[in-house]
Amino acid sequence: MSYIKKYDYVLLDHVIFLNDFKEPIDWKNIFKNHNPIVLEIGCGNGHFLINKSKQRPFFNYIGIDIKKKRIIRCREKELKYDIKNIKWICDDAFLALTNLFENETISKIYMTFPDPWPKKKYHKNRLFKKEFVNLFHEKLSTNGIFIFITDFRDYFDESYELVSNDKRFSLINNLFEIEPNLKDSLFGKKWENYSRNFYSFCIEKKY
User: What pTM, to 2 d.p., does this model score?
Assistant: First the structure.
């Protein structure tokens, strides 16, 4: 009989939930510094963001995921490596971004392998829509970066179409030269093992 690791729900005591806040968070006070904020939407079990936070201690990292069990795994890694520059939000990403962040306060957003809702009748549930583009445009600082990667070609095409001609952004080429470890996430590793193709884009906020 295989051993299944249990989840320590006490670890959620230090996780941010939307209902606990009635106004945007003062992240400078939370992190006790003025370092740039980097956000990952859909942080899974924390592999990608934990590695980033260890490599770049002068950035503040925030991971968002709606599933409590995933956030518990994130916190386990945070404690294992004694990481001080990372926080976790357990909630709906659109609502969290809307309510917990002041405008023009995020320097970079990663959207790594979002739920593609593959069946056509469920495409309406995909996060990447025009409303979402407008939202992260508001939250990014000028020259802020948004990075998107997926293994679903139609989700990429749908998302890319929304931003490719948006004059508020400029497209950045050579993404994997800038971000060579972009696939080092829970789902990135999983789908790479299945030899799936990845599709990505990187945009910079101009104004």
Answer: 0.91
CATH superfamily of 17-205: Vaccinia Virus protein VP39 (3.40.50.150)
Name the nearest CA neighbour of 203 among 99, 118, 132, 100.
132
* Per-domain residue ranges of the chain: 17-205
Here the tokens at position 135 are 């939202």
CB half-sphere exposure, 17, CA atoms < 13 A: 8
The amino acid that residue 176 corresponds to is F
- At residue 183, the pLDDT reads 65
Q: How far apart are the first and last CA of the chain?
A: 57
Q: Using DSSP, state whether 53 is helix, strand or coil.
A: helix
CB 126 within 8 A of CB 117: yes
Catalytic residues: 115
The whole-angstrom separation of Cα 17 and Cα 144 is: 25
For tokens 């004694």, name the residue: 82
At 54, is the pLDDT very low, low, confident or very high (cuts 50, 70, 90)? very high
Q: Which residues contact 151 (CB under 8 A, 6 or more apart)?
A: 113, 116, 187, 191, 196, 197, 198, 199
- In the predicted model, is pLDDT for residue 188 greater than 80? no
Confidence of residue 174 (pLDDT cuts 50, 70, 90): confident
